[in-house]
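QUALITY CONTROL LOG
STEP: pairwise intake check
CHECKER ROLE: data steward
CRITERIA: each record must contain a sequence immediately followed by its structure tokens, with no blank fields

ENTRY 1 OF 2
RESULT FIELD BELOW
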Amino acid sequence: MNLLHLEQLSIAYGPIKALHAINLEVHEGEIISLLGANGAGKSTTLRAISRLIPVLSGKINYKGKNLLEYQPHTVVAQGIAHVPEGRGIFPGLTVLQNLQLAGWTVKHKKQLKLNYESVFNLFPRLAERIAQSAGTLSGGEQQMLAVARALMTNCRLMLLDEPSMGLSPLLVKEVFRVLREINKRGTTILLVEQNANMALKIAHRGYVLENGRIVLCGSASELMQDHRIIDAYLGAAKK
């Protein structure tokens, strides 16, 4: 099933065009990796889907609905959670308070309880630090909290922006293991990630953005064998 479809989507920051009529599809149950250099338009794409920035032209269809008619908070209520670059947690609040704030879209107490159980099952370290201020957590724990907070919304689609940024190689492996597990539990993922090797290893399909244009797309295995991807993104990993 086609869950999300961007049609001829264009974004501009003043006179500078950030996205040039891109087309992108995300099917139910997939992990899609969106690759590209800094400034290619990856984060802009996620922010457009979340309705955090205005759209110049084109369409954003989600479950048959036109997201351009929605405000950011109503996008969340539709089942889209955005884990931004830099995590965006509330450092002065505890782990529990961060999670509580994210549960506002869940109307039934029984479901909310199940969400807490699921989150602490995935991230037992957060359960151990439930009363700790989020700002005092390690970088890896803060990333766990950011992902856990998104899961508390009962999201059907998770947008992830650079989840491995600033983490040690060991923690990067753990984050990607958890993302694979989240996907197995039924959450569709659109992933922006500089670590192309790790991103393609867990993805079903991928798109490559260059200067606001999609220049390549295909299955993850196809992209990992493409000499252009190897040269631009996977060279060190292939050595």
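ENTRY 2 OF 2
RESULT FIELD BELOW
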Amino acid sequence: MRVIDAHIHLIPEKIVSTSVLSLMQRFFQVDPEFYLQIARNPNNLVSYLDRYNIDAVAVMSYPAPDVMGWGDELVEAVGEYTSSHPDRLFFFCSVHPRFEDKPTKKLEHLYSKYEVRGIKLHPVHQLFKPNAYLPEEGGMHTLEEIYQFAIDHDVPVLFHTGTSVFPRARNKYGDPIFLDDVATDYPKLEIIMSHGGRPIWMKTSVFLLRRHPNITLDISGIPPKKLTEYFPDIEKFADRSMFGSDWPSPGVPTIHGNIEQFLNTELSTQAKEKILFETASKKLKL
């Protein structure tokens, strides 16, 4: 089967720290030497994708200096990393809606410099509600600008939903119900609901999928063996779901290992084809 991994993370070598590499080894079981080879040169990642017959990966980036310790320098570094193979390494750029007064200006810069396939927002690490543009939610005008930019440039916005274990994260922002307002107020916005609200809000995620045709589920961060436990009816919305490994993360030391686990689930072949490739190829314009 053809495969697009619609959600991985990568900190290029010039930014990654020894403490981060140590954390990956201890908690994610990621070989630090292997990670450094990938982080050092995008050609090494493409060679890895070729070895395991993976068409493309979407590489996430986002600034979260007060929670994760990195800012716009990570976004630029990932943009540079992916720029040599934009047909295989899909760049998801980002801005910080709380710290950026003129996000459109920053997004225009990124869009003109790199091939942008999507915008990543992480409410749990950037500490905001996706519907905070509403007057009753604080009137954060920067979100309106980001969403309109995505519509005008025909790129999706991917939202982290669900929890995070990092010490400064605020998990209340991970409830996907806030996307109900966004999908309603911006019906032309393509929304990717990453992680499906795991491990708390899966029923909310399914409700949103049924209610809003402009929302797509990204199953990254969900152990494949628990996929049908979390989403018993996933066969019914396989054409609205796409595979993501969330590499590197707990239980995901390699991308190909996560794909193998997914292939070993009891989903139908048709559902696997849709989730592994067809949905992402349409949404991310392979």
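INTAKE CHECK: passed for both entries
DESCRIPTIVE NOTE, ENTRY 2: The longest helix spans residues 269-283.
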